[in-house]
Design a protein that fits this description.
six-stranded mixed β-sheet, about 30% strand, alpha/beta, globular, 6 helices, Metallo-beta-lactamase, Chain A
Length: about 200
Amino acid sequence: MFFKQIKRHGDNFSYVIADEVSGEAIVVDPSFNANAIIQILKNVGLKAKYVINTHSHLDHTAGNQTIKSAFNAKIVAHQLASAKDISVIDGDILRIGKVPMQVIHTPGHTSDSICLLVDGKLLTGDTLFVGECGRTDLPGGSAEQMYYSLFDKLMKLDDGVEVYPGHDYGKNPCSTIGVERRTNYTLERRTLEEFLDFMSSE
């Protein structure tokens, strides 16, 4: 499996995941990195089959149409997102060649937020960062939903699962569930009420 984390402009991460046998690729959150992504794909002989958005904020969806036009790719997003060709929901599996990718619906930052699990790697968008979690005070955000997304979904994953966030906000560009469980102050043990108070004070 081909996997590459890309950051060319600002602090947004984009990702390319591909099955090298079939040459099919998924681009996650093209952001402002679309031209660099196209060059990388062409250099290694891959073609984008899907463009997946972890949520519908412009800093992640920018570049969608550029990638779509270059490869005739389909835009994939959660069913609550407005602009998409293919809708997905929690538990759906997308495949490129023989590589499966699982969709995990993680509302909180936005109602349409998803994480993507592929080959032991978790692409977390703006749900979980290295050392932080996503903000919940923007339109469509919910601290209560974020609590359940973090603790009932992501923290149920194995410690060895690698974490690849949507922004370069942490000390490192990636982490693991185990490291975040032990060191991320937003993931300290809290009741729902304590978490709501914590998020409202941030």
